[in-house]
Inverse folding.
């Protein structure tokens, strides 16, 4: 076996997995996600952690920033785009701890945040995740 360096998946690798998960969502969901930005970062910033009252940056794997579709109106012009944040280091930490495939874990986090965009219940999010699996 050749001496190949093995590195943890980088930000781009996590984004690629997230985009693949988006492609697997049912078309009726994808149709409403065109303006949602996917942003992959190593960790949430301190301001976000403080707002959410989270002390451990490894405790937050993803976050939806925006207004759920059901709360939007035509008066929202000029608003910032909705953003789904995925946090690489906490995702990798959970991946190492759980033994779940990285693709399944990224899909789980992404679907959960997509669910917030749609204002879904936890049960609805689980059903959506099953359809994207």
């Amino acid at each position: 076996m050749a001496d190949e360096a093995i590195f943890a998946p980088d930000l781009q690798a996590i984004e690629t997995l997230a985009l693949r998960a988006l492609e697997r969502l049912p078309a009726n969901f994808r149709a409403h996600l065109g303006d949602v930005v996917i942003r992959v970062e190593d960790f949430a910033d301190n301001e976000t952690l403080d707002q959410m009252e989270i002390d451990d940056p490894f405790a937050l794997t993803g976050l939806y920033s925006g207004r759920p579709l059901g709360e939007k109106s035509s008066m929202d012009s000029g608003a910032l785009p909705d953003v789904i944040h995925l946090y690489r280091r906490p995702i990798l930490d959970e991946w190492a701890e759980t033994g779940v495939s990285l693709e399944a874990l990224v899909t789980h986090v992404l679907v959960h945040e997509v669910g917030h965009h749609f204002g879904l219940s936890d049960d609805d999010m689980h059903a959506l995740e099953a359809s994207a699996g």
